Every structure is written in structure tokens, then in C-alpha cells.
Write a sequence for this structure.
């Protein structure tokens, strides 16, 4: 059974940093691109970052480019999201997602990040 | 950037009815489109990929169609467990989601 379990969320002050982790199980992790997607409270979905299966290439929307960094450790079946210079508009539930043919076929349960002073 | 315009924002229908949700892309996305269902308090789940392919385990009352810039999700014989928000997503050029449709039972 595919499982994606996110950790690392919490309350953080504006301008500070936070690192999310996602431990994957039930599939061959290094065969798949992985992504992070977020959802602000009561709002829609926003893609945040993607990484190729080898970790050699990464992709971001303009809203987080230069502030967020996606990475992975294939030996540990773990995906990361380093978030720097956090802003109030980054407050959201962050989902770890597995990419398959471009779509996201599995989602984690999500982890809440609140940016507030 | 490709923009996705989803409609309607909300929808109320009776049990057994057929409902349709639409997404329009700002440019041709060559069937690089997925549909997701998100039940209250839960993570989204993939329903449809490549515009019209049903994901494993998804009931056959869900179907996707479209091409070019216009795509739709149809739900036949609406059931109570279909109460959810639905999102489209293009993955032809980077990734963009539609704004979502909240489906309720009348």
C-alpha cells in the first residue's frame, strides 16, 4: 500500500524557516517524480514544487521560487521541502504527492504550516 | 503561464442526477488534464488523468472528456458520497489547478 506521511509543520514567525519531510513507503521511491502541493484554509490547490526521480532537476512556480527548495533522499525514501523567508500567505496545508504521467496519483494526509507573529 | 478557469464554483443537484463540471485552459493543453475529488477534511484523490482515463478504483459513473482548451468532468447517477469539491489540473506546461467546484446534494 502506498503511503506518504508528512511531518515538520507548525507555527512559525514571518521571515523564518521551516523544513517539511515526507516519508514514502509501498512503492519504489526512486522511480517517481515527487511534488509538494498546498492549500490555504478554505481555498483551492496550489502546486509548490516538483523534483525528478533522480533529484537532478527541480521546478517551482514564481510564488515560491528562490524561497523554497525541494530535495529528496532516495536511500531514505524521503522527500523534503525547505521553506525560507516565510510569509503569511504561505499559511496552508502542505501535501506530499506522487507524480504519475503528470498527474498526482497519491497524496499524503497533509501537514499544516501557519506563518504568524 | 497557463490559466485554468473552472465552472461552476458551486453546484447543487439531486440524487440520481447527472452533473457536469467544466474547465477551460488559456491555451491548448493537449489532454494534459486531471480531475481530483476532495471530500471535506480529506486529501484530494485522483479521479481522471489524460483528460479521459479513469484512475484505478474510481467508479465508472465518473467520466472525463474534452480536448484543446475545453474539458469536462461528468458524474452520472449522483450519490451521497459524491459530496465533495472537485478540481481540475493541467500538467502540459508546469502545473496549474482550477479554482474548484463545490458539489452539494439538493
Amino acid at each position: 500500500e502506498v503511503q506518504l506521511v508528512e511531518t515538520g509543520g507548525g507555527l512559525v514567525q514571518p521571515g523564518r524557516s521551516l523544513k517539511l519531510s515526507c516519508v514514502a513507503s509501498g512503492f519504489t521511491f526512486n522511480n517517481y517524480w515527487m511534488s509538494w502541493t498546498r492549500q490555504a484554509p478554505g481555498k483551492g490547490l496550489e502546486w509548490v514544487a516538483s523534483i525528478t526521480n533522480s533529484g537532478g532537476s527541480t521546478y517551482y512556480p514564481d510564488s515560491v521560487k528562490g524561497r523554497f527548495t525541494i530535495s529528496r533522499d532516495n536511500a531514505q525514501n524521503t522527500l523534503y521541502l525547505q521553506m525560507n523567508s516565510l510569509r503569511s500567505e504561505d499559511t496552508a496545508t502542505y501535501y506530499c504527492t506522487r507524480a504519475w504521467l503528470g498527474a498526482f496519483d497519491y497524496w499524503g494526509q497533509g501537514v499544516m504550516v501557519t506563518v504568524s507573529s | 503561464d497557463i490559466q485554468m478557469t473552472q465552472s461552476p464554483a458551486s453546484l447543487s443537484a439531486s440524487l440520481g442526477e447527472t452533473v457536469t463540471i467544466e474547465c477551460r485552459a488559456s491555451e491548448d493543453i493537449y489532454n494534459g488534464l486531471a480531475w481530483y475529488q476532495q471530500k471535506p477534511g480529506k486529501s484530494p484523490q485522483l479521479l481522471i488523468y489524460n483528460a479521459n482515463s479513469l484512475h484505478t478504483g474510481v467508479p465508472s459513473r465518473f467520466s472525463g472528456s474534452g480536448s484543446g482548451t475545453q474539458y469536462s468532468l461528468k458524474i452520472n447517477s449522483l450519490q451521497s458520497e459524491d459530496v465533495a469539491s472537485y478540481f481540475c489540473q493541467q500538467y502540459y506546461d508546469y502545473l496549474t489547478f482550477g479554482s474548484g467546484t463545490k458539489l452539494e446534494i439538493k
Summary: Chain B touches chain A at residues 1, 32, 34, 36, 43-46, 49-50, 55, 87, 89, 91-92, 94-100 (CB under 8 Å). The CA atoms of residues 39 and 81 of chain B lie 9 Å apart. Chain B has a mean pLDDT of 97. The radius of gyration of chain B is 13 Å.
